[in-house]
Amino acid sequence: MLKHDFFPKAIPSRPTGHYAHIILLRETESYALFQTDGELNTARVPAGAKRDDSIITRITMFKRKQTTPERLVGRELLRRYGLLAAEREQATADAPFCDYNVEFCKQCPDCIAYGFAIGDAGSEKSKVYSDTAYSLTAFEYSHETFTLNAPYESGTMSRQGDVTSRINEQDHVRPQVIFPAVITTRDLTFPMFKYVLNNVLRTRRYGAQTTRTGTMTNHLIGIALTDGEIFSNLYFTQRLYDVLREQEVDLSEPVNVHNALTVATNLVPALLAEDQVAVSQWLSGDELSQFLEETFTANESAVQALLREAHSDSKQYAVSYVLKGQKGKS
């Protein structure tokens, strides 16, 4: 189904133009928070790309708010199945200790796929490209303001005659807000690509306060194998907005995600053709469903096998290029 021979047999030291794009719609399923400095992140951009050039405000989901939860899910699995050590004292040659943003191991699938930077101790460029995602619908239809409070243990806001000031207002992203997105991987082996895709499919919570809210589902539209980068998240969002407006969909109400998926699935091949990249494969529809069903099963042994294959490829790359280079400098 997905062309395995498209992917390099080993991660190359220099770019070789093997681009695999994961195209999806991210849908909030609870009230989410994508914020900086206490406010939702927004941008003023044209509503559409061709049909509607009016300026609207859209909620933005910055790239790190997308990749960080997905990285943490992958790292959790690596620890769960013994490919990363939970503590430094437990580290072995086959299960190194890796502390996110503090002490990277420089050799696990997460470090090699998503990259790392440790100042003078070395860095590795990410092979997973992401960009800011934009809400399909305008800010005024996509957010809601809540008054939050923190009561005492009695359940009231006062104690011994004093009323607490722990009351605040906060904007939240409403449920069923759609964020079209493209995740691009470059020059990853097939096992490493499956590792990244597995992280995307498994991640369920994004943004702040993820223990209480932030539930999101990633609806996969398709996978495109090309020799170059393709359209941006913003352009994808604007073109999807245009088509939905042509179909007289009410964009002041939550958009039915299944309708949006159908429209997006038909739209993407046209966008790929406009980009003038050589498309080796566009996998969608029933073939995509079959690929996902056969590749990502709810079976522990299958998950372990997927992670071990990715771990083997990342370790091979690290020994050949990352760790070897650092030894030469010391």
Which helices and strands appear, and what pairs or packs with what?
Layout: E1 19-28, E2 35-36, E3 39-40, E4 42-46, E5 55-61, H1 63-80, H2 109-114, E6 116-117, E7 123-124, E8 128-129, E9 133-134, H3 139-142, E10 143-149, E11 158-159, E12 162-163, E13 167-173, E14 178-186, H4 190-202, E15 216-226, H5 233-246, H6 257-275, E16 279-284, H7 285-295, H8 300-329
Antiparallel strand pairs: 1-14, 1-15, 2-3, 4-5, 5-9, 6-7, 8-14, 10-13, 11-12, 15-16
Helix pairs in contact: 1-4, 4-8, 5-6
Walk me through the structure:
By secondary structure, the protein is an alpha+beta fold. It has one domain. 35% of the residues lie in helices and 24% in strands. The protein has eight helices and 16 strands. The strands form six sheets. A five-stranded antiparallel β-sheet has the order 8-14-1-15-16, sandwiched between helices. Strands 4-5-9 form a three-stranded antiparallel β-sheet. The longest helix has 30 residues. The model has no long low-confidence stretch (mean pLDDT 91).
Order of helices and strands: EEEEEHHEEEEHEEEEEHEHHEHH
Estimate the mean pLDDT confidence.
91
Query: Which value, in Å, is the CA radius of gyration?
Result: 22 Å
Low-confidence stretches: none
Beta content comes to 15-25%
The SS-based structural class is alpha+beta
* Number of beta strands: 16
Residue share in helices? 25-40%
